[in-house]
Amino acid sequence: MAVFAQLDDRSKPYWTKQRRELAAWFEDRVPSFTEGYVASVRLLHENFFPARIHLVCHVVRDIYRRLPGSLGYSNTSRPTEVFPNMVKALVKKWEEYPPPGNVDTDGASSGIQVSRQVFRYVEKIIEKSNEMASQPSVGNHLAIALFRSIDRRDDEFIPPWVIDAFNAEYDFFVARAHLVLEMKKVPDDDGLIENFEKFERAFHSLVGPYFSGKEELDDILQSTNTTTD
Fold first, then answer.
1. What is the pLDDT of residue 90?
2. How far is CA 74 from CA 56, 136, 139, in A?
3. Section 54-82 average pLDDT
4. What's the confidence (pLDDT) of residue 217?
5. Overall average pLDDT of the 114-141 stretch
6. Which residue has the higher pLDDT, 110 or 207?
7. CA distance linking residue 111 with residue 99, whole number of Å
8. Are 96 and 118 in contact (CB under 8 A)?
9. How far apart (Å, rounded) are the C-alpha atoms in residues 138 and 126?
């Protein structure tokens, strides 16, 4: 592990076996995420580091949003990424194909004719909204991506508590990830370590077999080498 091996604090008690394994998983599977995770663990225990709460929460938020894509699964769409451009396109359609004649919108029961092009694009926006409403939650999507990232038995499934934990922790971290406009709204660190550890437990419960498999393989290789010697 290039990143973790270079740290001066890797002997600290907060680097538990679980955290060492998670750092190893990031290093093996998505190395570009390793520094973010390692930095978050350190910041949890550096109480006086400026903006530590925002920084930790933003890293966790990015893991939720970007890790599935790094593992080969498409990321879930967000309304703020989709609808602003669709509304701009609708405005352009309206300007290109305006309603015929003068439109009286004062009457509650008066109908307004719109062009076929505008109507079809409104339908497209509605379809996209329904599609996004039916997509898995961000936490569910991350859990599925992690679950499928290693070989599983056919009878294995994601425990419901993992999905619930991922969803609950996502809400906690997203609410604290961004800078705020007023000092009174700056979040405190109540629950920060507790929620981070819940997130880690849920994460590790899905990728833990990755380390079991590696340990078994290492044992087999060691046994083979001993026999050969």
1. 84
2. 24, 12, 14
3. 85
4. 38
5. 80
6. 207
7. 11
8. no
9. 21
**pLDDT(96) > 50:** yes
Q: 38 phi and psi, to 5 degrees? A: -60, -45
**Rounded CA gap, 33 and 23, in Å?**
9
Q: How many CB atoms lie within 10 A of CB 173?
A: 22
- Nearest alpha-carbon partner for 65 in 118, 138, 155: 138
Whether the full predicted model's pTM is greater than 0.85, yes or no, is: no
The full 3-state SS of the chain, as one line of letters, equals CHHHHCCCCCCCCCCCHHHHHHHHHHHHHCHHHHHHHHHHHHHHCCCCCCCHHHHHHHHHHHHHHHHHHHCCCCCCCCHHHHHHHHHHHHHHHHHHCCCCCCCCCCCCCCCCCCCHHHHHHHHHHHHHHHHHHHCCCHHHHHHHHHHCCCCCCCCCCCCHHHHHHHHHHHHHHHCCCCCCCCHHHCCCCCCHHHHHHHHHHHHHHHHHHHHHHHHHHHHHHHHHHHHHC
Residue 214: predicted pLDDT: 54
115's tokens = 């062009």
| Closest by CA position to 146, among listed 216, 58, 198, 73 | 73
Written as six digits, the tokens of 84 are 């602003």
In total, the chain counts a number of residues equal to: 229
Task: Name the phi and psi angles at 221, rounded to 5.
Answer: -65, -40
Cα 54 from Cα 56, distance rounded (Å) = 6
Answer whether 3's CB lies under 8 Å from 27's CB.
yes
User: What count of other Cβ atoms lies within 10 Å of the Cβ of residue 106?
Assistant: 5
